[in-house]
């Protein structure tokens, strides 16, 4: 008597459409990218001080066919103003057009030094009250700034003074997801249209599974 044969099991647990894991570069690669981004932006032939370069990164510093980097220009001074987020639109086109799995997005622009440090770039200078006279706009040094945000929520920013190029650049790192209050601050900036915050959101969306809780908060805020 013939027994029934058990059907063969498919031991290949990896689906063809499984998204590959993101590969992140070494810090030494970031240290090369940031000044290169500043050089490209500072050398742009334009009188538009609001011009921003939005970067997308797949390169990890290894010699392989998936390594790439590219940028697109954007200016908040452009007209007509379009609805939605032009930054997220640019990021979406990069994700569709660049070869390989992106690990982060970046931006390079000219800004006020204290504004970049406090994460409120591209916003008007605050009005301060002077005990000796009427209110005046605060003044600060202008800098070339380059920031890179990766899908883990890491931010690395470098500043170089526009009028004092001989000074050493300033570089600082932060974890934008380290505290609930920090996350809320970044979401607030997205809601108010801060360009760097939209780049931050685009970077988090590169790993939607890992960042699903933060992205859900962001979506809820934008739709409320």
Separation of the first and last Cα atoms: 68 Å
The whole-angstrom Rg is: 21 Å
Mean pLDDT: 80
Q: The biggest beta sheet, please?
A: 6 strands, antiparallel
Percent strand:
15-25%
Overall morphology: globular
Count of individual domains: 1
Instruction: Determine the fraction of residues in helical runs and give it as a percent range.
Output: 25-40%
What is the helix tally?
Answer: 6
Which stretches are poorly predicted, pLDDT < 50 over at least 5 residues?
1-16, 120-139
- Strand arrangement, major sheet: 2-1-3-6-7-8
Order of helices and strands: HEEHEHEEEEEHHH
Secondary structure class reads alpha+beta
The number of E-state strands comes to 8
What does this protein structure show overall?
With 224 residues, the protein is α+β, with helices and mostly antiparallel strands. Helix content is 30%, strand content 21%. It contains six helices and eight strands; from the N terminus they run αββαβαβββββααα. The chain has helices at residues 27-42, 86-97, 113-117, 180-191, 195-205, 212-223, and strands spanning 52-57, 69-74, 104-112, 127-128, 136-137, 142-150, 154-161, 170-175. It has a six-stranded antiparallel sheet, sandwiched between helices. Strand 4 and strand 5 (136-137) form a beta hairpin. It starts with 26 loop residues before the first helix and ends with a helix. Mean pLDDT is 80; it is low at 1-16 and 120-139.
Essential attributes:
224 residues; alpha+beta; six-stranded antiparallel beta sheet; two-stranded antiparallel ribbon; 6 helices; globular
